[in-house]
Write a structure and sequence with these properties.
This protein has no helices and 24 strands. The protein has 276 residues and is an all-beta fold. It folds into two domains: 141 residues, TolB, C-terminal domain (Neuraminidase, 6 Propeller), CATH 2.120.10.30; 101 residues, TolB, C-terminal domain (Neuraminidase). Strands 4, 5, 6, 9 and 10 form a five-stranded antiparallel sheet that branches. The protein has a four-stranded antiparallel sheet with strand order 11-12-13-14, with no helix packed on it. A four-stranded antiparallel sheet has the order 15-16-17-18, with no helix packed on it. It is globular. The C terminus is likely disordered.
Length: 276
């Protein structure tokens, strides 16, 4: 088993032989392998292993051009001021790129995303065959998003698959999810109709069907059944005050409620738990 970790803003891996390998060698002000963009748009981490563990995608954030902001550290007995990088509205933002480290060769490439450099890069996902990396690019005004595919060997952009825009804002929160046992179709989550719902696409960017619809939210995808014919979700369909679990058939879109009791239900490793 290979594990990725960071020390002093640089990225390392510890392999199955117990070797610790430094992946990046960046100066102060450049952060690798950690979450970026202030943890917005569903971002909660900075490393993304490929399905078989052969490749490691990671964020590289250069914030040397960002002005310092005086943060207050309240952990000290007497609060102290510590400067940190914070891109204020209208001021220069940090620049993010995405690297891909090859465990076998020890080499790293960076995706050729081009300009402008102050975009948001979110919702990173791997293809099951590890040949393609997908992520959503969002402009700084946060009203235009594009799902792109990139070749992981060359780092070149392959195709724009899905594009969304709004006079107000778009808010991508979830990476695409490939169907179980099918490398040609994936589920895309969007709030394009005012509620977060599931859409089935193929890898050419063609919409096959909208899987869920209504004045309620899909809150989470819980997984597939053994054959991959159905997907389990948690949603507010029963009531905005409840979280119920449903089974959705991928061919027909038919939903079957799994949790009978009222209240909030949470998925666990051993099934569903009722929180009343």
């Amino acid at each position: 088993m290979t594990v990725a970790y960071t020390i002093d803003n640089n990225l390392y891996i510890a392999d199955s032989k117990g070797q610790n390998i430094q992946i990046t060698h960046e100066p102060k002000g450049v952060v690798c392998g950690q979450s970026v963009h202030r943890n917005e748009f569903g971002i909660s981490k900075g490393t993304f292993w490929s399905p078989k563990g052969n490749l490691l995608a990671f964020y590289r954030m250069d914030e040397r051009m960002v002005a310092d902001y005086p943060f207050v550290d309240i952990d000290t007995r007497i609060a102290t001021v510590k400067p940190g990088k914070y891109p204020m509205a209208g001021m220069t933002s940090h620049e993010v790129t995405i690297g891909i480290y090859n465990v076998a060769t020890g080499k790293t490439i960076y995706l050729n995303a081009g300009n402008p450099k102050d975009r948001y890069f979110t919702n990173i996902a791997w293809s099951p065959d590890e040949k393609t990396l997908y992520y959503i690019e969002l402009n700084r005004d946060q009203n235009h998003s594009q799902l792109f595919s990139y070749n992981v060997e060359s780092g070149n952009k392959e195709k724009m698959l899905i594009e969304e825009s709004s006079p107000k804002y778009v808010e991508p929160q979830h990476p695409i999810l490939f169907l179980k046992g099918d490398n040609t179709k994936f589920i895309y989550q969007s709030q394009r109709d005012g509620f977060n719902h599931l859409y089935l696409y193929n890898i050419d960017g063609k919409l096959i069907k909208q899987l869920t619809k209504g004045n309620w939210l899909v809150k989470d995808i819980l997984g597939f059944d053994a054959k991959g014919d159905n997907i389990y979700i948690s949603s507010t369909e029963a009531s905005p005050l409840e979280t119920q679990t449903y089974k959705v058939n991928l061919k027909t879109g038919k939903r079957t409620r799994i949790t009978p009791a009222a209240g909030t239900h949470t998925n666990t490793a051993f099934g569903f738990r009722e929180n009343m």
